[in-house]
Amino acid sequence: MELDRITARIKGHIPAVLGHQQFMKSAVLLPLVQQEDELHVLFEVRSETMRRQPGEICFPGGRVDPRDKSAQDTAIRETTEELGISEAKISNVYPLDYLVTPFGMIVYTHAGVISTSEQFDPNPSEVEEIFTAPLSFFLENEPEIYHVNLQVKPEKTFPFELVPGGENYNWRTSHIDEYFYIYGEKVIWGLTARILAHFVEMIR
Questions:
Q1: Helix H or strand E segment including 189
Q2: Residues 40, 139: contact at Cβ < 8 Å?
Q3: Is the pTM of this model over 0.85?
Q4: How do residues 46-78 score in pLDDT, each as one tens digit?
């Protein structure tokens, strides 16, 4: 291949996360609602019938659909479907940092405002209940953080003979930080708590 063709190919490339085509992509919305004189954060409790993470607390969101124009559109669409509200009641939606997890997932996070003048009608197949917590609670209380170690375990057919050290190769170790907020009897943890902590860091 000629050098000119190589440089032209590189010059026109738009960088992304390496291997992102194989990652599952989802988008979520951190919803802010005004209640009386105070801003609250709205949460969902996932239905007990959900295949993944039943009963856990989360933000509205879901998988990016090829028909969605952007990840932001995904977050808004999923919010309307899960909370049973019209898109017109969602405003000031802006992107936060996105997360790349060790489990092959990219999560595009957003914050936005939901007007409380419209009655919520949660989708029972996805949402067990909704609740809110004052934003001030999260500004005044730091999350608890715990480490989860990740273990490297090559498959049985891994060609150890091709790497220096063979079966004694010194694999790099890593961990993930799991965040927890305890609000009354509600336990907000995992990606939801991490996104919330990031949002709080941004607005402080």
A1: strand 186-189
A2: no
A3: yes
A4: 998 888 888 999 999 999 999 999 999 999 999
